[in-house]
Write a structure and sequence with these properties.
Order of helices and strands: EHEHEHEHEH
CATH topology: Rossmann fold
Largest sheet: 5 strands, parallel
CATH architecture: 3-Layer(aba) Sandwich
Shape: globular
Oligomer: single chain
Number of domains: 1
Number of helices: 5
Strand content: 15-25%
Radius of gyration: 14 Å
Number of strands: 5
């Protein structure tokens, strides 16, 4: 994603999706470390404890304990965390989820494809954008 070694935070409770994401990032030569948290509560705790924020958060919405929308609500209330770019990567096609996510300031909303090649292309698009994007 970025030439720096800042990690990418993936909030995902489905281990198959975690493996698919790791594989896709490796295939497109993203060398940033991937930190995986299984729910929003765990992700929030990791962010608050991290010395340096991740370069990007990839967020599933449907997770146990604290879902993606609740995670976003917490992050956007936190002055230190609110500017971390977050891309929703989910199977949810609910209009309410999309609207609420954008209301909470996400950088993008991508549907997880069951087709691996299509998923790789989604990850390639995310990588291309964040490689060129300037962050504060």
């Amino acid at each position: 994603m970025k030439t720096s070694a800042r990690p990418i935070l993936l909030l995902e409770d489905d281990q198959v999706d975690v493996l698919t994401t790791r594989r896709a990032l490796k295939e497109i030569h993203v060398s940033n470390p991937l930190v995986v948290c299984e729910n929003g509560e765990e992700g929030l705790a990791w962010l608050r404890a991290a010395a340096e924020p991740p370069c990007l958060v990839l967020l599933d919405l449907n997770m146990p304990v604290m879902n993606g929308i609740e995670f976003l609500e917490n992050v956007k209330r936190d002055e230190r965390l609110r500017r971390i770019p977050t891309v929703v990567l989910t199977t949810s096609e609910e209009t309410a989820d999309k609207t609420r996510s954008f209301d909470l300031g996400i950088a993008g909303y991508m549907a997880k494809s069951v087709d691996y090649r299509r998923f790789v292309e989604v990850m390639r698009s995310i990588d291309a954008y964040w490689t060129m994007s300037e962050q504060p």
